[in-house]
Amino acid sequence: PPNPSSDADLLRHLLFLSRDVSSHQIPSPPASSSSSPLRVNRNFFSVPHNVKQLSLLFEELLLTVRDDDDRCVDFALPRLASLCFREILLVLHRLKAHFDHCSARSRVFVLFLAEPLAAEIHEQVVDLATFLDILPVAELRIPEDVRDLLRLLLLQLRRSSSRVDPAALSLRRDILELIALVESGTVPDHAALQGIFRRLGIDDSWNCRHEIDSLERDIADGAAADRWVPAMVALASILRYAKYVLFGTSTPRLDTSAGADGKKSPFSEAEDLAVPADFRCPISLDLMRDPMVVATGQTYDRDCIVRWIGSGHATCPKSGQALAHLELVPNRALKNLISCWCRDNNLPFDGADDTSNKQADADNATTAVANKAALEAARMTASFLVEELAAAPCTEAAHRVVHELRLLAKHGSNNRAFVAEAGAIPLLLPLLRSDDAGLQVSAVTALLNLSILEANKRLIMHADGAVDGIVHVLAEGAKWRAKENAAATVLSLSSIHSYRRRLARHPRVVEVLLQMARHGPASSKKDAMAAVLSLAGDRENTGRLVEGGVVEAALEAVGEPEVAEEAAAVLAAVARRGGAEAVAKAKGAVARLVGLLRRGSDWARESAAAALVAVCRLSESGLVAELAAMPGIEWVIWELMGAGTERARRKAATLSRICRRWAVAVEAERTARFSAMSITTSSTTVA
Length: 687
Fold this sequence. Notes:
Structural class: mainly alpha
Strand order of the largest sheet: 2-1-3
Radius of gyration: 34 Å
Oligomer: single chain
Mean pLDDT: 82
Shape: elongated
Distance between the termini: 111 Å
Low-confidence stretches: 254-272, 351-370
Largest sheet: 3 strands, antiparallel
Number of helices: 32
Helix content: 55-70%
């Protein structure tokens, strides 16, 4: 807190601070005027009122600081009064800190931690009463009515208590009983559920959504005592269930963004905030919290890549390359950029503190996974929504439910499993052909989010008409967003080897992806190329891709900075798995790949070098001469050997050897030809 330089300055600080404290209410009042405020402790309501009365004293004293012309005059408080007011200033700062802390928390947080919160505020109230008691009121030039007000205020402060309101304790017991009921797998009675949440001050969808967001933020922050974290995790899931059961599904916002909906906001798709592509994990498509670099140089969120490797995969999910080792290196530079972006957009970022939050995040994640009540509530929510979708009487109602299903499936493997187990996939597939553009986007996005779970991939691929529906969206989707998410679904499904072949065998998958890669906007081209890259990870698919024109499409795309990385990786994958001849025969292939070596990103340069190595190893291609004739190619290769990624350096070294061998062979051939000519000339002269 500041240290006022004068008594007048001290009084001004006291006045401003007292007005600030008096504006607080704990917990924050509900938005609905019909909801009664939650009363946890008497001080939570009385202290702001008492401090407001105290501000009248500071206002009265400040009147003596100015003359009749409203100019500051010399002013000095009695020494004891000045010392008391400075101590009161400290008390008010502590009260403000407590009230700010509580006001930012959920109502459930305040209810569960009522005792320690009430004790902290009671301690400050006792201190405030003590300093007011020793304040030399008789030495202050204040009217008698203000003196009477101070005496009354002192009596009120002395009646302060840290006791929690019995009604709040009763509500907390009822909430814990509700959690136990849900944990047993019993669906709670709607009337009882509504009564509990009304007492909590939640009586509409907006209040419920706000409480869920606040509660989840409290859990992520690790602010609650360990004993209450499991109950808070469980209640967050129950609140989400109650939001749908009691208040109905919400109407989706109109959406005009061109990006892939399933990959936008890490917290709430309703916000529809465009997350930069480099900040999204290629596996989950969510904002990365703890980016890690694998052996190939690609970056993934720690949780996603650990699960990928733990499930037995030994390849890079994005590039398809074999991982030389399984070590993960933190990408701290990217993490700092993501943290700054979240701060600029007023979004929470769990990974902002590398040391203090890491263990708390891990503990909270473990609690969320192991919390049976939370899992049962999520299962009930999924079942309820799927039942609502099956009974939806119109397109608008179906759209609302599908919108909620996609949000539910966006977060957490358990939610994805529950939604699929409830039978959502067969109900979503017909909606891929809906004439309603918004419903189609929501349906394909929900399918994308479900496909992230490996068990759901099998359910989708074995569902009748699933691949045909995805192809329909790719070819005829009403919005580019729908097409992008359909391409991302192909990418997700093709991470399983057998499905990669099955998708490529479909007569139209490769065709529509390449059409999208050629004619779509940049974000669509990027998603299409990523899906094609995944299909190119299987040698059996190379022939179909080449016949479909993948080489030409990729060569066109390498000139676009937004898509160059994926396009170069596709060329490298195709060349490495039997398509080198097709790349070699493509017009301008070497020139474009060398251009990428000069100006591309690290991954693009690495892929371009790998593609050049593959095509130059074809002895009959004659491309080495074309490569060697490129101006400054020796310097480009040399620079890549010194400053590229580990794999890029290896490929550059191989390119250098290929060029040197070619140069030696050309020189030897020239020498032999010269020698032969010399011998012929000598023979002629002798004759």
